[in-house]
Amino acid sequence: MSVRELVVLGTASQVPTRHRNHNGYLLRWDGEGILFDPGEGTQRQMLRAGVAAHDLNRICVTHFHGDHSLGLAGVIQRINLDQVPHEITAHYPRSGEHFFDRLRYATAYRETVALTEAPVDADGPLAVTPAYTLEARRLSHPVESYGYRLTEPDGRRMLPDRLAAHGITGPDVGRLQREGSLGGVPLEAVSEVRRGQRFAFVMDTRLCEGVHALADGCDLLVIESTFLDEDEPLAVEHGHLTAAQAARVARDAGVRHLVLTHFSQRYTEPEEFERQARAAGFEGELTVAHDLLRVPVPKRR
């Protein structure tokens, strides 16, 4: 059975708190798992969330600040300890390749898995599979940072009334889908476009073109909201977003479900992030993330 959901492993920003681990997010997309920004403690959070090394197919790192990458050493060693049999590909900014190498080989261990490295150095597609296209966009942060976007190919939705009007039933429906026409009836005459689902992951950044491009039309947007409105000058200085800025991005992009995360330790009332996001005009589904939360990708319209 296909499952599309976000598993939140950690939601803290620069330092963890009693209730928030460093970053870590797993996107389950049918039979694949994409791990984003494994911060310190990710391996243990995976255990608590019921996520195994075998569930991973890709690792995507936005940038090489410790709260987004220090967990790589443990995760990579666990992948090798468990002898994951399938290929795992790691994406990260090419400018941080030396950091990735240091984390990959931080200590001695037996390397049993051929981890494929595919560094990112420009906007554009990183991987194209039958299930999705994964692309990256440059963000605005003191160190080079990229956000990631996953887009499912558009499909077609069969329309029962039109099928019936043309007398197409049973196995002939599948034949029509495979061959594109049947008895002079084109597929387009009895179906409509079914828009592919879209997911984006936006971490440490100021407002910039890349943020808007990643968020455009997303069914599920995971985005940092390190600060509240009253600290917007700090957000700009340190290359981050406020809850209201993230919400306005989602509002303007037509996002269906907005997930706010990456919270500064200075705040103790998570509901204030939701209040400011709503005040900024976002009316879709909204989640203020907490550790070990599971968020389903919205069903297709």
Gyration radius, rounded: 21 Å
Level of helix content?
A: 25-40%
Total strand count, please? 18
The general outline is: globular
In DSSP terms, counting alpha (H) and pi (I) runs of 4 or more, how many helices? 10
| Structural class determined from secondary elements | alpha/beta
Strand order, main sheet: write it out. Answer: 6-5-4-3-2-1-18
Explained architecture:
There is one protein chain. This protein is an alpha/beta fold and 301 residues long. The chain is 26% helix and 26% strand. It has a 7-stranded mixed beta sheet with strand order 6-5-4-3-2-1-18. A 7-stranded mixed beta sheet has the order 7-8-9-14-15-16-17. Strand 14 (198-202), helix 7 and strand 15 form a beta-alpha-beta unit.
Summarize the structure.
By secondary structure, the chain is of the alpha/beta class. It has helices at residues 42-49, 66-69, 72-81, 97-104, 160-165, 171-179, 209-215, 232-238, 243-253, 271-279, and strands at 4-10, 24-29, 32-36, 58-60, 88-91, 115-117, 124-128, 133-138, 146-151, 155-158, 181-182, 185-186, 191-194, 198-202, 220-224, 257-261, 285-288, 294-296.
Give the key terms.
seven-stranded mixed β-sheet, about 300 residues, alpha/beta
Topology:
Layout: E1 4-10, E2 24-29, E3 32-36, H1 42-49, E4 58-60, H2 66-69, H3 72-81, E5 88-91, H4 97-104, E6 115-117, E7 124-128, E8 133-138, E9 146-151, E10 155-158, H5 160-165, H6 171-179, E11 181-182, E12 185-186, E13 191-194, E14 198-202, H7 209-215, E15 220-224, H8 232-238, H9 243-253, E16 257-261, H10 271-279, E17 285-288, E18 294-296
Parallel strand pairs: 3-4, 4-5, 5-6, 14-15, 15-16, 16-17
Antiparallel strand pairs: 1-2, 1-18, 2-3, 7-8, 8-9, 9-14, 10-13, 11-12
Helix pairs in contact: 9-10
